[in-house]
Structures are given as structure tokens and as C-alpha cells.
């Protein structure tokens, strides 16, 4: 039912003049989805409080609650079309009253780690793009059909929202900016193995795919990464305590995002995965001076796919010991600095990082090898990121001891990757199994850092175990074979001609 509702909402948005792309559809769905979720959450909490004879103090004032303006109901629960605003009245209310009221929460909230502050952040970043109050009325009535009352409903909606983010990524030229393939993220999380009590950070979190998958792994366990029926376990039969759940909710996942739309999607995505007040900040991560980083700022685990190909201004580069305009290389310095001693990281980066001959690249590879144990490099095939025309690798490292040996794995799914042949979990099973023991094979090998040229610190993917390709033949030999085949064909045609 939920899937059809999402499709119907998209149909409404497609006809709306103010929405022209998949990005707009996702943005506009997000703010409506958030307000509907918030109303269901408050209704649920009010009922719980009433059961013990207390009165619930609603976050949102009566006039601005979803059930008052978006979906007013009669006493029998049916939709009240007589009191529901529509047309210019609805557009005027949303733009002139609702959004200013909601964005004001940022100033009124007691602290940044509250849901009130997140409300203010979201509605300070985005605007309603509806130009027709009749289209908005249709979208609101469809959105009201969604329910967030049970764990299973939230789980289904989180999957649908992920699919929406994926479609949005596929639609754009820079799809990887919004969407990292979930099978790849899950493979990275399994290698890093986060445990409850550890902090996880993504300084370029996009739509928070890494944080959401890490949450599901820690919440439900590796077996299936989904609720085991009652949503009260971690997938292997062991229920989490109230304190463990609270730790997951409030003291585990941290993100930063520069752009408005991904930031809003990150908050919505994490909320749908069960984190009510996500610790996601809207900021330019690279504007922070690494010289100011203290131990309290560091994290146990970093999982990230930072943007690559971008260029940062000179004043931003001044925040880093190794000066470079390449965004991804600045992020890698940031991640190394923000990792606790003994901390673990998995970072996606373009494969040219391993071999670039410029001074900044060489210095950064040297820094990585000397300050961290770069134990694994996963070489991803072309097409892993739809819409992104670069090849990538994943760097797995631990901070605190220098690299002695690095294990490489060349991922080969046996097909060209595309929209209909995207990466799946089975493609990465062998990598996960072999990485646990750093096993060598035709696709994997180990490099001793002592053998690396210290004048270049070249870490290129060069598989020494791949089967030898057949040697190239001489041109004369190829021409002779073509002539022989032509002669054979002419002979067969002559025989057929005699038979006719």
C-alpha cells in the first residue's frame, strides 16, 4: 500500500509546475513526510502519557499540527473537506505562516541535539515549491495515508525512502553524490564491525546511507539487518537493553553535510531508521582547521564516501597540512585527524589517489602509510556508482600503527554494471569471506610496504596473480588467417551456387 501511495505522490509532483526533477520530488516529499511522521510520533506519545493520567505537552502548536491544517478529520475519522484549506489559501498559509513558524524552532530549541532543533534546521533549509494549492492539497491527502505507528511500518517506509534517494541519484549526472550502493556500504560495515558504545562518523554524509546501514547492523545484527518480527532484537535473538537503545539513539551516529538537500534527506532517512534526533550538522566540514582538533572531537569509526573531483578555495586549503585543491584528498586528511587512536575507517576514494604523481598525493599516501595501518584496498569495478564516470577504491585502515602489509582485492562481478545490473550483496560475499583472513587468490594479493618505492609511494592496483592473457599474435599471422577464412567462404559460396 505504501509503495503505491509514494507513486501517487510522485504523479502529483510531476504535474506541479514548481517541481521539475527527481531532486524536487524527493525534497518536497521529505518535508511533508517529516511533518506527518512528527504528528504520528506526538499522537503516540500523547496516548502513552494519557494512560498514566498525565497531559502531553505537544512540540507543535495546535494551529500548525498536521492534523489541523494538512489533514483535518471529522469526529468519525473521515477527512473533513469543509475545513481543509486549499488553493491560494493553502499556499499562503504554508509559505507565510507554517514555514516561518517551523524554522523558528532553531532559535527556540534548548540544544542542538533535540528534535525541536532539527525541525528548525530542516525548515530553515528548504522551501515549499508548490505553486498550485490544489496540487499541494492532493499531495497532503495522499501523504496522510502513510502510518508510522508500528516498527514494521517505519521499516517499510525507510526502504521506500531509500529507493527514492536511489532514483534521485540515478537521475543525476553526479548520482554518487546522493547515493552510495547499499550492498557496498553493507560490505564495508561488515569489515569494520561497529559495536554498541563506539561512535561512528561520516563528515560527508549525503543522505546518511552509511550511518543508517551501520545503525541497522548494530540494532538488528548481521543476520538480515531487519527487525526479527517484533523490532526488539538485533537479529540473532539477543534483545538490546534500554540503555543500549538510548546509546544508539543519541550517542553513536554523527554526520556533517554541506548541501541543503542531502542534509534534509539525511535527517529524514535517519528518523525513518529509528533515530528521532539525528546528530547531523549542516556545515562545510572542510572549513574546520585540523590544528584545532582535540581528543574529544574524535571518533571510533569513520565510514564515508566523500565527494571527489571538486576544488576547494585557497583559504580552505590552509586548514590542512598537505595543501591540495582536490576535495577528496582534503577529506582523507580530515578523516585521519578525526579518528581516535585504534579507530577504524573505510573510505571510498577515486582510484587515481593510489598512483597520482603530484607532491600532495605522494605526501598523503606517505602520511596514510606511516600514521595508519592500511590493511585492505578494495578495487571497485567501473559502473559501481551510477552516473559517476570514475573508478573507485575503498581504503580500510586503523589509526595508530604504521602499515606493514596491504591486502588488495579486485572486485569482479562478472558483468558490466548498470541500472539493471547494479552491484548486489552476493557480488561482495567472496570479498567479505577472504578479507577476514587476507587470503590470496586470482583476485587478491598482498603487498609488503617494504617493497614500495619510497620516492613515489605508488600503491596502484597491480594484480600479480591474474591468469596470463594469451600473447598477441603477429599481424602477418592474423592476415593469413583472414585470407584463409575468406578463401574457405568463397569455396562454400561456389558450392552453394552450383546446387541452386
From TrEMBL:
- Note the Pfam families from the entry: HsdM_N, N6_Mtase
Q: Give the top-level enzyme category.
A: transferase
Question: Which reaction(s) does its UniProt entry say it catalyses?
Answer: a 2'-deoxyadenosine in DNA + S-adenosyl-L-methionine = an N(6)-methyl-2'-deoxyadenosine in DNA + S-adenosyl-L-homocysteine + H(+)
One Gene Ontology BP term is: methylation
Q: Which InterPro entries match?
A: D12N6_MeTrfase_N (IPR022749), DNA_Adenine_Mtase (IPR051537), DNA_methylase_A-5 (IPR003356), DNA_methylase_N6_adenine_CS (IPR002052), SAM-dependent_MTases_sf (IPR029063), T1MK-like_N_sf (IPR038333)
Keywords attached to this Swiss-Prot or TrEMBL record, sorted alphabetically, are: Methyltransferase, Restriction system, S-adenosyl-L-methionine, Transferase
Tell me where in this chain the N6 adenine-specific DNA methyltransferase N-terminal domain is found. 4-95
Q: Where is the DNA methylase adenine-specific domain?
A: 153-469
Q: Tell me, what is one Gene Ontology molecular-function annotation carried by this entry?
A: methyltransferase activity
What are the EC numbers? Answer: 2.1.1.72
Family that this chain belongs to? Belongs to the N(4)/N(6)-methyltransferase family.
Q: What's the name of the protein?
A: site-specific DNA-methyltransferase (adenine-specific)
What organism is recorded for this protein?
Answer: Pseudodesulfovibrio methanolicus
Kindly list the organism's lineage.
Bacteria, Pseudomonadati, Thermodesulfobacteriota, Desulfovibrionia, Desulfovibrionales
Amino acid at each position: 500500500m505504501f509503495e503505491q501511495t509514494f507513486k501517487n505522490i510522485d504523479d502529483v509532483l510531476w504535474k506541479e509546475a514548481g517541481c521539475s526533477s527527481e531532486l524536487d520530488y524527493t525534497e518536497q516529499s521529505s518535508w511533508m513526510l517529516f511533518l506527518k511522521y512528527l504528528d504520528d510520533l506526538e499522537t503516540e506519545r500523547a496516548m502513552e502519557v494519557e494512560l498514566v493520567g498525565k497531559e502531553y505537552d505537544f512540540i507543535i502548536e495546535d494551529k500548525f499540527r498536521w492534523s489541523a491544517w494538512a489533514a483535518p478529520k471529522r469526529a468519525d475519522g473521515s477527512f473533513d473537506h469543509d475545513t481543509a484549506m486549499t488553493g491560494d489559501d493553502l499556499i499562503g498559509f504554508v509559505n507565510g505562516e507554517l514555514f516561518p513558524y517551523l524554522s523558528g524552532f532553531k532559535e527556540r530549541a534548548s540544544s542542538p541535539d533535540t528534535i525541536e532543533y532539527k525541525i528548525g534546521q530542516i525548515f530553515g533549509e528548504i522551501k515549499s515549491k508548490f505553486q498550485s494549492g490544489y496540487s499541494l492539497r492532493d499531495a497532503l491527502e495522499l501523504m496522510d495515508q502513510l502510518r508510522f505507528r508500528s516498527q514494521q511500518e517505519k521499516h517499510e517506509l525507510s526502504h521506500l525512502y531509500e529507493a527514492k534517494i536511489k532514483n534521485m541519484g540515478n537521475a543525476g549526472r553526479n548520482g554518487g553524490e546522493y547515493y552510495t550502493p547499499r550492498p557496498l556500504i553493507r560490505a564495508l560495515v561488515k569489515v569494520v564491525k561497529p559495536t554498541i558504545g563506539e561512535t561512528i562518523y561520516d563528515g560527508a554524509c549525503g543522505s546518511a546511507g552509511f550511518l543508517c546501514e551501520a545503525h541497522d547492523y548494530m540494532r538488528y545484527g548481521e543476520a538480515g539487518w531487519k527487525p526479527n518480527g517484533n523490532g526488539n532484537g538485533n537479529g540473532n535473538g539477543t534483545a538490546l537493553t534500554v540503555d543500549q537503545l538510548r546509546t544508539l539513539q543519541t550517542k553513536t551516529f554523527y554526520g556533517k553535510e554541506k548541501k541543503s538537500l542531502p542534509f534534509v534527506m539525511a535527517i529524514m532517512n535517519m528518523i525513518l531508521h529509528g533515530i528521532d534526533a539525528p546528530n547531523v550538522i549542516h556545515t562545510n566540514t572542510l572549513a574546520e582547521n585540523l590544528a584545532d582538533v582535540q581528543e574529544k572531537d574524535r571518533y571510533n569509526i569513520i565510514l564515508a564516501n566523500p565527494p571527489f573531483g571538486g576544488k576547494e578555495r585557497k583559504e580552505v586549503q590552509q586548514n590542512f597540512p598537505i595543501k591540495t585543491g582536490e576535495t577528496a584528498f582534503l577529506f582523507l586528511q580530515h578523516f585521519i585527524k578525526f579518528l581516535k587512536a585504534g579507530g577504524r575507517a573505510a573510505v571510498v576514494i577515486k582510484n587515481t589517489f593510489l598512483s597520482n604523481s603530484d607532491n600532495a598525493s605522494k605526501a598523503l599516501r606517505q602520511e596514510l602509510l606511516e600514521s595508519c595501518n592500511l590493511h585492505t584496498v578494495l578495487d571497485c569495478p567501473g559502473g559501481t556508482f551510477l552516473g559517476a564516470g570514475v573508478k573507485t577504491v575503498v581504503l580500510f585502515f586503523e589509526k595508530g600503527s604504521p602499515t606493514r602489509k596491504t591486502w588488495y582485492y579486485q572486485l569482479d562481478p562478472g558483468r558490466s554494471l548498470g541500472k539493471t545490473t547494479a552491484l548486489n550483496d552476493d557480488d561482495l560475499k567472496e570479498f567479505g569471506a577472504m578479507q577476514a583472513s587476507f587470503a590470496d587468490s586470482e583476485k587478491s594479493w598482498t603487498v609488503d610496504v617494504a617493497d614500495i618505492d619510497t620516492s613515489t609511494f605508488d600503491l596502484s592496483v597491480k594484480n600479480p596473480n591474474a591468469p596470463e592473457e594469451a600473447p598477441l599474435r603477429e599481424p602477418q599471422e592474423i592476415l593469413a588467417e583472414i585470407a584463409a577464412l575468406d578463401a574457405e567462404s568463397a569455396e562454400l559460396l561456389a558450392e552453394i551456387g552450383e546446387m541452386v
